[in-house]
């Protein structure tokens, strides 16, 4: 998990950050990205792809990471996603996360195939949250923050079950949409609101 960080530093880059996003697929809520600078590579808690961790494991890792690392957050809400499309919204959230970092990295490791407009060189890594410690850490922080946002929305719009499914297209969520229609945090450019299944 440290291969890409070690390789970048052996090439002369001193401050290497990981960038990842959470929330491209849901029908509701924002896309959230995190850029993180790991000041160390050994942690008490498991640092891995956030999807591989339990909710409690993610929370413990999140608390350790946010206490010991520099990180920045970028958020684009559902209206921004509808206006821009999800790909452009993801790009902007990732770029904003790096701008929010609070330190000046000279290289970034980015999850996926997305092209970013950054002032520093970066490497795209498909499945990076399972291959890079920095990207995995970013995925954990982004996931916990987005889940907290969706829990807040659950209190505002309790009929939809956002606290359970976090806006993803579960059977529970589709049943609520069919019964109540969309609420203000639904992405109206997404199926079923646009009447076209996503490809």
Question: What is the annotated CATH architecture?
Answer: 2-Layer Sandwich
Give the number of DSSP strands: 5
Helix tally equals: 7
Structural class by SSE content: alpha/beta
Overall number of structural domains: 1
CATH topology-level fold name? Nucleotidyltransferase, domain 5
Low-confidence stretches: none
Summarize model confidence as the mean pLDDT. 96
Which structural traits does this protein have?
41% helix, 7 helices, Nucleotidyltransferase, domain 5, 199 residues, alpha/beta
Written account of the structure:
The protein has 199 residues and is an alpha/beta fold. It has one domain (3-180): Nucleotidyltransferase, domain 5 (2-Layer Sandwich), CATH 3.30.420. It has helices at residues 3-10, 55-68, 78-84, 86-99, 133-156, 162-165, 171-180; strands spanning 16-22, 31-37, 70-76, 107-111, 122-125. It has a five-stranded mixed β-sheet. The longest helix has 24 residues, at 133-156. The model has no long low-confidence stretch (mean pLDDT 96).
How does the SSE layout of this entry go?
Blueprint: H1 3-10, E1 16-22, E2 31-37, H2 55-68, E3 70-76, H3 78-84, H4 86-99, E4 107-111, E5 122-125, H5 133-156, H6 162-165, H7 171-180
Parallel strand pairs: 1-4, 4-5
Antiparallel strand pairs: 1-2, 2-3
Helix pairs in contact: 2-5, 3-4
Task: Give a nutshell description of this structure.
The protein is α/β, with parallel strands linked by helices. The chain is built from 7 helices and 5 strands; from the N terminus they run αββαβααββααα.
